[in-house]
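Dear colleague,

Thank you for sharing your sequence with our group. We've completed the structure prediction you requested, and as agreed, I am returning the results in plain text so they can be pasted directly into your records. Please verify that the sequence below matches your submission; if there's any discrepancy, let me know and we will rerun it promptly.
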Amino acid sequence: MNKNRKQNHRTSSTSDKTGISIIRAILLAFVLCTVQTGPALAEAQMGDVTFPIQDSSAAQDSVLTGNINVELLSIALPAGGLEFTVDTLREFSLDNPGGQFEDMDLPIMNRSKVPIQVEVSQVAEVTKGDLHFEDKFSDQEKQSFQLVDQISKVGPMGTAILVLGVSGQTYSTAQEFERQAFLPGRTGSIYITEIPAEETVHLKLYGKVAPDFYGQYQFTVRPTLKISAAR
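Please find the predicted structure tokens below.
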């Protein structure tokens, strides 16, 4: 009974050109964190205090002067997240790391007078509310989604490795790619790029995604983008 139902499901999916390979309406939601520059301390200056030898003490007024350098950061990027499509039948390679992703473009416009640095400071845990699966037609496979940090770990249903990079970017080794992987709970920021003053850079989502056994599914990933004045 389950076998026949499974066959009917696949036939129906193939006829509308989606199949179990297409993951639609995936939402990548960004949380933006900007870091402004703080006060800069003035250089220390030294001077002499002279007092008569017959006096046991002397007083000298001192003044500390500090200069505050304020650099206002102004950044524009799409609000409300991005929706795009993944075709898991397309090939992933280090020379074409975005081959599975369609309609994925994240422009970041630096309107500031100074260059900015873009990093991913953290990735939120993927919860049940972030996932939407098709109805199960058997108990043959469980439904789940998991972000992994190695390309070799993408294979089981619902596994994925995701990386944010500059449009057109390629990677020379798997290790270079995997160092940029989104992983909830990962410590340390992931450097993405530097954007010169008054210029725009387009970012892309790269990676490899495994399909779900039962058809299309949707997930939401929430990385925090940290934007600060470039040092």
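Summary note from our side: Helices lie at 2-15, 174-178.

Kind regards,
the structure core
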